[in-house]
Design brief:
Layout: E1 2-3, E2 8-12, H1 19-34, E3 40-45, E4 49-54, H2 61-73, H3 79-82, E5 88-95, H4 103-110, H5 114-123, E6 126-131, E7 138-141, E8 156-159, E9 163-167, E10 170-173, E11 178-180, E12 183-188, E13 208-213, H6 216-225, H7 230-233, H8 235-243, E14 247-251, E15 256-259, H9 279-289, E16 297-300, E17 306-309
Parallel strand pairs: 5-13
Antiparallel strand pairs: 1-2, 2-4, 3-4, 5-12, 6-7, 6-13, 8-11, 9-10, 9-12, 14-17, 15-16
Length: about 325
């Protein structure tokens, strides 16, 4: 066990990444999640490790370390404790063009036909080894060795949500529209991350995943019946916020952003905690104008923005001089 900065412990569980090691990691994470002490903000399982994040203002790092040692001493990582119930997922996929522009490349590198790549990829039984990169992005172990393909030399600026891809010896699905450098071979109609759902991420660590090839007509029908994306559901809220706007942004400045206290406790789903870089200054500014300490603020770094005031407001400025 090693310190990871001043606010986390890194617990090394497995010596290699294989089904047994992944199961042991999940067992340790599950045992730690049962009764964490106050001040532990997040417990995140990865390939061979578990990271325990804590707030040093609430709990001492030595106390967190002692608690972790006690949990491990109870045998959380033994083979018997590694057995756990997981969820099995079947994701329908339309392989090839226009949804899988890199299928031909994967076929060429593997020396297989496109049909053989589809058959072998769909025949795989995958396990969620870790979640990260973007919210809900599951790194899936279990790809057939002959399908392993290096990442693209030049990543795409936009990869569509639902894109099924191969990166090195792993496969996965892009849950959200994002940049990406993996080789896209198809697309699923399933929504793998939805903030309005609990939990927001559909795939969890240790879950099993199987891909099911579907015909074009069936895939189009599933796309039409899938729920509205979060952006579409958020449109009415965005219109209401526009009506209540207090400022018009004339120039955004460099690294100006809206921040609150952040959302810890969701890193296991790939959601970074976020929050203000200077939380004390954010709390002070909020108190000065009568807001709750955790209310959202406009945090400015480097060069600040230029704003036009649209209605009477009370403004407070706090933090370092920049």
């Amino acid at each position: 066990m090693d310190l990871l900065g001043n606010t986390a412990w890194l617990v090394r569980v497995a010596s290699r990444v294989d089904p047994e090691g992944l199961a042991q990691v999940r067992a340790v994470a599950r045992a730690l999640c049962e009764r964490p002490p106050a001040g532990v903000s997040d417990i995140v399982a990865a390939y061979a490790t578990v990271t325990v994040h804590f707030d040093p203002a609430v709990v001492a790092r030595a106390a967190v370390g002692a608690w972790i040692d006690a949990v491990l001493a109870r045998g959380a990582a033994t083979p018997g404790a590694a057995a756990t119930a997981t969820t099995a997922h079947v994701l329908p996929v339309r392989y090839g063009e226009p949804f899988g522009p890199d299928l031909a490349l994967v076929a060429e590198r593997s020396g297989l036909s496109a049909a053989d790549v589809i058959e072998r990829h769909a025949a795989g039984r995958y396990v969620v080894a870790a979640i990260g990169f973007t919210p809900g992005f599951a790194y899936l172990a279990g790809l057939a060795p002959e399908l392993a393909t290096p990442r693209r030399a030049t990543p795409r600026l936009e990869v569509a949500a639902g894109s099924v891809a191969i990166g090195g010896a792993q496969t996965g699905v892009y849950p959200l529209l994002s940049p990406g450098g993996w080789n896209v071979i198809g697309r699923t109609s399933e929504r793998l991350f939805d903030p309005a759902r609990t939990p927001a991420a559909r795939l969890c660590g240790g879950d099993s995943v199987r891909f099911e090839p579907v015909a074009a007509r069936r895939f189009a029908r599933r796309l039409r019946t899938v729920a509205l994306p979060p952006a579409a559901r958020a449109a009415p809220l965005a219109r209401a916020m526009k009506r209540a706007a207090a400022f018009e942004v004339l120039e955004p400045g460099t690294q100006s952003s809206l921040q609150d206290r952040g959302r810890s406790g969701h890193a296991a789903q790939g959601v970074a905690p976020g929050g203000a870089l200077d939380p004390l200054a954010a709390a002070v500014a909020n108190r000065l104008v009568g807001n709750a300490p955790a209310a959202a603020v406009l945090e400015c770094a480097l060069t600040g923005p230029r704003l036009r005031v649209l209605r009477p407001v009370r403004v407070a400025l706090a933090g370092a001089r920049v």
